[in-house]
Amino acid sequence: MQNPNNNRKFVIGGMVVAVAVLFMLRLFYIQVIDRSYQLSSNNNSRLRVVEYPDRGRIFDRYGKVMVFNEPVFDLLMLPQQVREFDTLEMCSILNVDLAELRESMKKARDYSRYRQSAVVRQISPEQNARLYEKLYKYPGFSVQIRTQRKYPQSIAPHILGYVGEVNAADINGDSYYQSGDYIGKSGLEQEYESYLRGRKGIRFMMVDVHKRLQGNFENGRYDTVPEPGKKLTITIDAGLQEYGEKLLAHKKGSIVAIEPSTGEILAMVSSPAYDPNELVGRIRGKNFERLMNDSLNPLFNRGTMSRYSPGSIFKIIQALVALQMGVIDEYYSVDCNKNIIGCHDHPNAHGLREGIRYSCNPYFYNVFRRIILQGKSTSQFQDSQVGLKSWYQMVYTFGLGQTLPVDLPGIKPGLIPDVPFYDKWYGASRWAFSNIYSNSIGQGEVETVPIQIANLAAIIANRGFYYVPHLVKSIEGIDTIPRKFTEQHFTAIDPKYFDIVSDGMEEVVYQPGGTGSRAQVPGVVVCGKTGTVQNTGNKEDHSGFFAFAPKERPRIAIVAYVENSGAGGVWAAVITSLMIEKYLNGTITQTAKEQMILEYQQY
Amino acid sequence: MANPRTNFIARLDWLTIILFLVMVGFGWMNVFAATQNEGSPGTILDFSHRYSKQFYYILTALAIAVITLAIDGKVWSFFSFPIFGIMLLILPITILIGREVNGARAWIFIGSFTLQPAEFMKFATALALAKVLSRYNFQIHKLKNLLIVGAILGLPIVLILLQKDTGTALVFLVFVLVLFREGLSWVVLFVAGLAILLFVLTMLVPLPVLLPVISVIALMLTWLYQRNLKFFYGGGIMLAALFGLAVLASRYLGQEWSLARLFFIASVIAFLIWLLIILRKKHNPLLLILFTWMGAMIFIFSVDFVFHEILQEHQQSRINNILGLESDPLGRGYNLNQSKIAIGSGGFFGKGYLQGTQTRFNFVPEQSTDFIFCTVGEEWGFIGSLIILGMFTGLILRLIVLAERQRSVFSRVYGYGVASVLFFHFAINIGMTIGIVPVIGIPLPFFSYGGSSLWAFTLMLFIFLRLDTDRYQIVS
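ok -> structure tokens follow
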């Protein structure tokens, strides 16, 4: 070779080959070995489109709709396609402010030019109809249908509860939920969420870089169809519930009514209340805040959460426990001397029935004394311990001092004091009957919530057993309700003793000197008992009354409380009477009583 | 088989022509895949889509190819300087009347039609270079010749840089390979290689670390070269003392005097002291190492200065991104990241023609032009990518073989010019899509959408094929 530079062709050729080999190795790495690019590619181009199912509707015990889903319309805008249009006309159709519309359109544009966002939410069906005719004039706009909860009778907010957007805890707790989903936040909506929500459908779509849909992924092979929520039938009698809410309007209090033979809750009224439609849709946030800050606490379900001293109602328990223990018999009598414990003026009680009729405080002081101090030990302290322990064991079987597993969130347990309770309070063996006798008449440490008292009425009506009070009657597609609601719970009391207290409760309503004569219902034998709850401080007593009716084969067990309104024989007894009449007879004949209640307003 | 000495058709290098046709055809398929989704559906012929435009560009390119083959090869040698001159005039005109697209003023609009003159500068420069190097008894290392060659390469670079089309300007650096083939010293390649290495190191390693490390390497080289422990220890102590002083000084001087700057000053002082010692003791061979060391220090320092003081933020980002110093998948690294996702998701066999989600749904920016290789990688997979690599490597190597068989220096130099330019485009474009070269916007020859680049490459290639048919002629 004449020119030494001729060899340099190999250097240059070598560089070309070297680059090609380097590229080959690199391509092999990113295309064949490293699969992360495959994943990124899928994330880029696949979009999960969620289709929401209809939430399950809720019906009352007679099949009347209590909750359904109402279609609402949102106006969506795709900024990229929007041309000039008559904003004023749109504003007048939708009844929105021009500034408001401009603001939300700007927000939508800032969010994305290529994705739809809602600019006007919850357009009424009428507005939608008018808008629909004009929609051709508004390129880039479309209407999306969603559903929201609607409550036709506007009742039972505390039972039904409300739905709201999931929070971080909901999402972390159940992988089903994603940001923006709705979930039952209280009441039955929360309790039966897993049935009501149905199942979301998922469609996999292909999208381009601007998230515009480009068609189904693999012809929908991986898609699922949304499954509508299950229909829920509940035990509530919507008519009775509505009537109860009417009676308690402008009063603070609650009513709980149960069908004794099944434990089904017929009505559960808590007042003050609110219209459940207030916590739906566009107005929800504002209203929720207002209700939260309301000093009357309308979001609070008094029927399951208000802890009261049971007052004289508790005397029924004392009577039953004492009979069962054999420390008294039905003829046990006590002079009404007001030395130790006060009482109202009434004839001396001869026998247990009259003790109940007159609601005699000294009588039940002595009954409780006999229960606690049975002389099993020479020490007052020891004896009280033994007595309280066996008393507690029996009282507990009435479903008191424990959280009844009712199908509502947030049930309160109340309190039945036992030996450890007082040991902690006073110190071990440093308390005796003299420290705890207030409990004899339902004051002192005992505390109950209204649903426990309603259940107590059911126990007496059943002569000694109960079913856990519940709201579910049936769930679509499921044959049975949970077993906890069909199991009989027996008390520790012999059924024969219940006849004695039932007689006493009848006398309360029908015999002279009875404290609850206002609870009478035409054509029905009502058995009831007043419970006037004394409050500390200068506050007026709570008026309480519980009852069941008819006396034979009872169909309703009920309790009513009106806070700070005075004696149980007045407001609560009248309300109970009206509720029983409404449920058993269907019509109200006692119009004077009704008038009196409706006119009584606390706020 | 007809005798190539008498038959023109037989003298044509059909291997190259077939490679060209296959690449252009495959290129169009990929442009179609990348652009069939844009706008309303259309046909190939209605000129409303990129793929239909590209179809016409290809037809035009074929016409250019045929015409070029029909023109006497001597024309190019004869008119090489006028062509070069005219192109040099058109570039400034482009700056004046051109419209700005993507920040560069590189396009002339003729009606709805656009032309990018810089693309045609490449073949003109190759012609001019071939003309100069083919002069009788041309000696490349003569200063006058170096200046002429420098001017031929420098003028287009400067003018194209003025258009703010950095990518295209960089292409002209590849002619160094041609010069190398024609006898340019190894030193140039060595220096160029060293410069690239130092550039990368400057970006990766903080200067206060890099400067001493380079110095220590230089010291070790002196020891290897001379086995002179006196120099080794003496130099080491001196350097340590000077750098130590620099560290101390940095504590008392203001922020203006960064450690890197003080290290640099210390290095200059060390250089001067050393220079005196070497000259007095007549250890002249050490001067090479000393000057290389000082050159490296100056280079590093100026690269750092240019990077931080002169380059704009987006240019810094691109460089940082490619060196793995910056990670922002949605920011400036977006192109690169999406490009790698598209290619990487292709797998071994690819997703199938027209089945690529990344390219069809516009995840990759510039996917029909500079990032056309993404479509290949995604839809044809590793297999398809290998075929492309093979075709380009084959074409470039074939061109080198053709160039080497020329008797005329003009044809050989021009042939190397064509091969080098194709090599540069191939290396930079594909390297950029797979993330081993910074994102520099130059097209993939015969594949990328666009008339100018396709026509320019076709013209360039077929001039050489025509010159090749004249290979049996006596060199005049």
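The CA atoms of residues 216 and 236 of chain B lie 8 Å apart.
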